[in-house]
């Protein structure tokens, strides 16, 4: 086969849960250009039976290693519990099989660093991560605007993302969910990784974090179900991140303040961009006492100070995962630049685990000179206390 359109990447799905099942359905229906369903692997006999029923003719394996050795797949996606992402990715790349890891890249930075180093040593094999929100036009447009420098330097940003309401039955459906040994955390490792990635993708990687977390606050779980964190981006720029799983109403509001403007995103759909006529400090320095009086009396024409643009975006739900899968296939086939290189996954993992470590120790955590071994020791202490899962190394 010489033509690009005649070639496909045979994807192996490891873990046929909700996410893996969705990917299998998309591939079976031919909705992902350049990609086909190569095989399915799952340790659960019921899931294997389901795979055989829903996808006749597709090879089904009871463990991922057998799939990797089968010759049935060119690439894999890791739709499995978070602790396994790095292990499976390393195994796949070691056999020359391209890997798309699900978010988060891992639970603790040591395992993600090992995965990244292994992938870097095998550049001929594609390593990507499923940061599908990076395909959302809301955020791709904002990324371009911020990177253009039009709004100047970042001053402050805050993201309140509490649209993750989960009733108790959600946690009770699986013994590993919201445990330290089975999942490695709560809302920070399950629901919020996309926002953590987008936040640092847009604003830059934070250098320090101080956080207050509530563990089992409104749910009968061991891990965090509410988070309030303050971060330091350096050069005076700061940020606040708040998330939870106990707000049935929910809020999704991102604010980013710059020297020459402001961005507000509501519900990941409505965007308000305010552009100052000059940078804020120049406007301040140029105001006389008389101007201040007029300002306080509401007599200043605000168009002299700023203009406002509003944009409404259609929901992209259902298209984002397809976009990442197609991009992954295009990179394998033709070298198309990746939407998200797998190595970038460590930024969100470091930020999430830094928040947890800050809450456990009551101190600000340096994210540049990150205390990875201390975090792992604290995590293992909690895993041991649970008594259900093995500790990590």
Automatic annotation (TrEMBL):
Domain Gfo/Idh/MocA-like oxidoreductase N-terminal, first and last residues per copy: 10-123
Q: Does the keyword DNA damage apply?
A: no
Fetch the InterPro entries from UniProt.
Gfo/Idh/MocA-like_OxRdtase_N, Gfo/Idh/MocA_Oxidoreductase, GFO_IDH_MocA-like_dom, NAD(P)-bd_dom_sf
UniProt entry tagged with the keyword Repeat: no
UniProt keywords, alphabetically: NAD
Where does the GFO/IDH/MocA-like oxidoreductase domain lie? 140-263
Protein's recorded name: Gfo/Idh/MocA family protein
From what organism does this protein derive? Brachybacterium rhamnosum
